[in-house]
Amino acid sequence: MLKITIMPGLIWMVTTLKIEVGDIFNINLNPTEGEEKNKIRPCIILQDQITPLKLVTILPITEDNGKRSDVFFVPITNYQKIGLKKPSVVDCYQVRTVSIDRLQKNKMGNAIELIDDIKKRVANILEITGEHISPYTINY
After folding, report:
1. Total number of domains in the chain
2. Which candidate in 32, 48, 56, 132 could, as Cys together with 36 as Cys, close a disulfide (CB 3.0–4.6 Å)?
3. Sign of the four-CA dihedral 13, 2, 113, 116
4. Which stretches of the chain are assigned E, i.e. beta strand?
5. Which structural domain, as residue segments, surrounds residue 121?
């Protein structure tokens, strides 16, 4: 993926941002409304292909306060290994598609081992069953 940044008074800066399923990036989720997760916070990437619109689907990560429902949250047991400072969970109820411009440039880590549990919870929340799954492959 190629990202071009134009800064006043400087020539173009070209950087490469590699994104894979399970990557954890700090992402600026503002602006928000109501109970949406906000501020710059760690999020897990759900897709590894950038769309033609330079968007990526993510889930926010939040602190595990011990009261999170297993229906909506996947615990991150190895939180320190992936760069998190406190026990955390993936909030599967707040699926978002965001511009790659919201991603902070440095990847924190990867939690690919959580993706199956995450997808099951998201499918359950959205009531997606076998009859809703498309036989088509999306190529960007």
Report:
1. 1
2. 32
3. positive
4. 2-5, 13-16, 23-28, 40-45, 55-63, 73-76, 88-91, 96-99, 103-110
5. 19-129
